[in-house]
## 1
Amino acid sequence: MSIVLACDLGGTSFRAALVDDTGAIRAQHAIAGPASRDDSAGGSEIDPDAWWELLVKACIALAAEAPALFEAIGAVAICGVTRTQIFLDKDGRSLRSAMTWKDTRSDALAGRLREALDAAHPESAGVNAFHPLARLAWLREQEPEVFGKLACLLEPKDYLNFRLTGRQASDPVSMARLLAAAASHEGSHLLAAAGIPAAILPAMLEPWEQVGPIQTGLPAPLARLAGKPVFCASNDTWAAVVGLGAMREGFAYNISGTTEVLGVVGREPARAEGLLTVDWRGLFQLGGPSQTGADTVSWLLALLGRDDAAVGQEIDALLAGQRQPQPLLFLPYLQGERVPYWDPSLRGALVGLNRRHGPTDLAFAVLEGVACLNRVVLERAEAAIGRAATEIRFGGGAAANPVWSQIKADLCGRPVVVAASKEPGLLGAAIIAFTGLGRFASLADAQQALVTVARRFEPDPARTLAYDALFALFRRAEDALVPISRDLVAAAQEDGPLAGLARHASATASLHAD
């Protein structure tokens, strides 16, 4: 029996597991992730050393729980959240806090960049507040001293691999946007045009290639793993798609964790408005990450005064209630949006409220609103590829909820298939490690051997017809409310006409207190 240490650094938690070569998780430990420091200017930062501390703590727990299995570890693979930049100097020290996937401070600068960059370059149109090029240009403009010392840019899982092995490396999937910006197109080079040196890119490895052996001198119990290989792996979405068995032509995937990610996998590259086309090493994905997902459920529970530490039980209780005949529409853009709109100024809305609506109606509206966004992405991807997805492989915490699975199947009109593993990211990381070790000839073989299906949800024709009507109204609501969202955000800026309302509310509260 072979054992690998698989880790999944997510947006809100860090999970580590000891996985055997049948795909079974033999021991597992989860730790809440460090909270990002978010501010009103759109900043969102995390100290990268906090992620290293989580890895060490998780390994301490695993070694205590299953000492014999920990000693049997043959390799390590870590997948992790992407669109998060860690800035290192020439000695490998972190220059500042990491900018997380939520950071929108570069929004205005991204607009100026797009106007200045060569429009013929295929990556120019995709430069926005979430693009690493815009983040780097912001750093160059706002923190020139830090930028002047920048020697290497890493993603979170790359930083952990670096701390384990001493080698700075990444993979072409996680670094796709920056590599695209670095690539020359008819003499145009976006990095150079933005004043960003290409030398900050680390070495590029395939996800199943070895970064290096674990170095000596690490804190216990990692010291006991010295010499064991660490495989490069990739971002958490790519690994989870592998863990769902969806890394196959014609399949769609939907990962619903803190945020929602949906895409369709094809053999040839295709492009669609607002979607990311990423080379997935022999296959191509068309889709990408949103800013919304299961986090909207946590928001709803907090709004209703429910226990958001027991999300599954609470949402089940809400969905079990009586629903009103007239449904609500929910636009799920609570933090702006990435795919497919790339607009940090989008805002959420509940449309159609009446006096009889209650918590159950709100719960269904939230789940259906996220599923409507799924359908927008799915329709654009399928139209570009020229074929319907055969099925949607559904994973992440939300996949445990059969009601949400059925809603997605009915609203998208495609079978939704939930894999047996409740941790597709961990299983995907383990598959990467076993493939790298030579246990399987390819990722395809490893998926075939280790991924099993738990449940399949077929679209119900009657509900699908009703949801077609709801989806049409959802799209009309988007079109009507997008301009209002942008005006609200602009008006609430420091010099905007609505800026004083928060201060006025504080003063009013003081009067009531007196």
## 2
Amino acid sequence: MKRFSRPDSHTALAALALFALLAVAGCAARTGATRSLPAPPMTDTARLDYDYLVYQDLLHQLQKHAQEGERSTLTKQEVGDIHARAVAALDRVLAAAPTPELYVEKAGMFWNHPEGTSRSRAALKEGLDKFPDNRLLTVYLANSYVADNRPDDAIAIMDGFLRRHPADMEARERLGQMLMDAGQDAKALDVLKKIPEKQRSADALYAMGRVQGNLGMRKAAIGNLKKAVAMDPEFTEAMVELAYQYELAKDYVAAEQIYGSILEQSDSFPEARLRLINLNLKLNDPSKALELALDGPPTKSFILDAVLLFINDGFFAQGSTVLDRLTTGGTVPAEYYFYKAVIADEGENDPAKALTYLDEVKAADRLYPHALRFKAQLLAAQGKEDEALALAAQGKGLYPDASIFYILEAGLKKQQGDLKGAEASLKEGLEHLKNDPELTYELAMIYEVTGRRPQGLALMESVIRAHPDHANALNYVGYTLAEEGRELDRALVLVTKASKLDPENGYILDSVAWVHFKKKELEKAWEYIGYAVDVVDKDPTIWEHYGDIAAAMGKTREARKGYNYALKYHSPEAKAVREKLKKL
């Protein structure tokens, strides 16, 4: 704000107060009068400066209150009063000398307001009324929609701005980033490509690399991410994404080098350390992975993330060693016992020991309902179905609005062959939790296995309408349509969206492959079935699909491999698979 001077607010206000006192004292001394004289009127410029300094001082008080947190001595009422006076002072400044930056500041005053971002948005729109097409206000307005999880509205704002200002490359870059964050990768790439190469910032190159990676354009993604890192060698996010793309390309040596260089630069990016741990586990070097985990930050979140990596790759002893770090800080958290139970069950095949650990999770802990469910599953695996069902009933009583216990009970009944009882449990849950997507999904699966596919499909369609980002429902509908050989274009849209929502899900990757196969797009089908068997390597149906796609492409050796694995892993359609083998 060029019109305003910005001295330290406390000093400035003190000086103003002292000036006023001296003026009154001077007048009294000169005249000897006992009555005070009126203060001279402020000029417009002085009033403007004064209002801005008042605003700054009050804003400083609010910032100090936020920084102090629970140590602050201000009451809620006092904070509200300071906030109102700050806004009033800022409004007076805006009335006299409005600028886009001041409207952004006003929006910031309401960003964390209990009423949400609508008050911030109102301030930004007020600013745009005075400064139409101002990029700063436009970007902040779009960001307010992003904060409210309304990406389409944010994109529309930026898209409209660019239609009026097609040469504004900073706005184009921001639109590309918004499209990327909204999962609209192809559109994001189209927008970002329109930025001339010489004008692409490191951020723009990073965004291009990410969306190209998401679209399977691995070579192009690596090229742009390398450019971003060359432009800004400390751009950690770009380095991590570049290493990840190398991982996907199975260039583990290059990926490891980048993760290592990130850790050399700074240890404040635990994601890089976790990725490096995961990479060493893929390279079957658990000792190096364990060393990296033990040298990592002592935070609970990092330790648990690292433990999960070891557990998921079957290195239970190393995971247990890392988990023991949680016992050095005094109170042992419930997560310690829960994860020890997982290791005891899956890694040591000792369910009795796992149950002992779960007994240490207390009812007041947030993990207690999960511990109850785990206990029930362990008891069921030991053949103690009645005890397991009793725990499920206990969970329903304690947490009537938690879907997991209705699903648990239904699953236990299903294992006993009581499909009607399973259906009743799920419907009971839906009485408490209307339209719950997980309960509805499980009920649809019951309909599927009891020969009521049309009812199940209708339920899944209802889940998609109410919860368009429910990956399992999207996958079910898409795969079912492909199996029935209809609406294949829509089926592909559904399973592709499901895969973007859950990219590491091998069953969904299989669905994508199968829809491409049904559409006679064999190259794409082969690409995705390869991804699927990499992730889920012991599923007979996926291996049968692998064989079918290979056979259609004339890859006889690969087809034989797929069918043999389907039989090895006990395909429920073994007779049909053997017939396919004979025909090769």
## 3
Amino acid sequence: MADRGEIARRVFATCRLVGIETVAVYSDVDTDAPHVNEADYAVHLEGSTIATTYLEQHALIAAAKRAGANAVHPGNGVLAEDPEFAAAVTDAGMIWVGPPAATLRTLHRKSETKKLVSEAKVPVLPTFTDPETVVGFPVLIKPDAGIGGAGMRVVRDASTLAEAVASARREVDGDVFCEPYLPNVRHVEVPILADAMGAVVPFGERECSVQRRYQKIVEETPSPAVDAALREDLCRAAIVAVRALGFVGAGAVEFLLDADGDFWFLELTPTLQTDHAVTECTSGYDLVRLQLLVAEGGSLPMPGPPPIRGHAIEVRICAEDPAYAWLPSSGTLHRFAVPDVAGSFRPLPQPGLRLDSGVADGSVTGAHHDPTLAKLVAWAPSRQEAARMLASALARAQLHGVVTNRDLLVRTLRHHSFRSGDIDTGFLDRHPEVFAPLLSSVDAVRLSCLASALAGAADRRAGAPVLSTLPSGWRNVPSGSQTAVYDGPTGPVEVGYRMNRHDELAGWWVRPVDPEELDLAGLGQAPVDEHPPIVVVSASRDRVVLNVQGIRLAVLVHRVGDVSYVDSPEGSVTLREISRFPLPAPEAAESSLIAPLPGAVRRVLVVPGQRVRAGELLLTLEAMKLEHPVHAPSAGVVSSLPVHPGAEVDTGELLAILDPE
């Protein structure tokens, strides 16, 4: 298996089912990763970066030979679309689980692919390989060879086209082309399997319109915009495109679809798509098994498209912060738990939840890999049931240790426009309200803070060497209050509560605190406007039950060091307890630009001594397969530039010093 994470686990699950032994490859950071532990054999890859490990083709082929493998599955990343890797595998005497190298070479040039498909009478948007020949605006610039959305940008007038094309070429280090940009269209794809005997079987269609940075985060089948007649037209066009390109294996033919039912071919993705799980749920077929069958030279066992059973929706749970330009999040995943999951990595026998995950409790997310942690799928008799089931499971999941896009996914699934099927590729741009956190009401945040303080007190009392059964801060004559100070979602807050002689909550409050005055004597004094009374039903180190005006509410608290991860039916919040006497921290110069995340410096566009404008791009960081720009916060002069292209940086590391003018 020449890949890692969730896709490796997915392929291994089917291999175990059909009696095929498996070999995993792993880098240093993945020594104890789930995909390594689940393989029959594992081979270590020397190197410290993804380029020297999982993308080093010679090392991967050497690892396969060393383990005695007779086939290589490339996963669904960059290598799965690389014709040179496919050729190297077959030249080494092993089976390539994917389309032939010759087909991949054709698909590697998107403009050439579109030309061949157009000649087969499949609708295709006009393609302009020379910016001088562009007719009409806006246009979308796309890399001729590339995946993942890199280099794509919209240009709305001719005055900015030349610079945008040059910028896109630098970003992808290759050729680009332009095609008309169609706003308010859907991204629909037809998953297909084709064998060497000429059989091509489409599996309905998938709706993939909810995207960020041209990458899908919500997928479903069937599409709410496609009826039986349109489905037949899409599948017929997909079959024609597959045969025109000589494609064999598993893939997906991607289309743009407008409100009038007109569609245009985009590309043929020659991999087992990451959203294949929804198709498995509604078709009942194990697509990995069929992919392996075709790779061995077998014929597809079904005569035509299988019937669609119910509705399936998938979301990608990613380690990233949607509210901050999708900034990737790295670190230790202290807890990853999704309730009511019925199965993983293969078709479900009946409607329910399926979780395909590449991580587990204790997994470490790094800056060099895709931010996707897992794919959660709901399969139900109807679209409304699937959306409701999926949103509920996500909202109740415990995702602790890294920032994720969970709240955005829940709000999207519960949004009235999504529920009605009114979605397209601009959904997130039109609905900024889905970026709000689930735990947004003031009262819900206050209750979470109180629960964290009570759980912290219970934890300390449980570990006390003497009198551990007494309540925290107990006195014969009650005086003062129990307090804790947290760095919460809106800044530092003080949590305080007073207990009476019967160990009952006599009063409580949560109030903002000036971070520069945390050590003042005023802390711990109850304010005049205490919050409405509640009853503490029970409080332990990991679970607090509160009675709020007659309604009982259970709050789960997971403490890791000084951080509390608080989960309730209202949502989740992370609270870091602040010491009353913090140690002084070194201060960076006011003009310092520091790395917002760990990653590799990809491009440096300035030199020391150069004057820059406010907002000018200084350099870019590459993390989790995405490029993140670092702009000048104000006009000034670059006085220091300690990094260079290829340099690895950690969060908080100095990137540049900009002396403001």
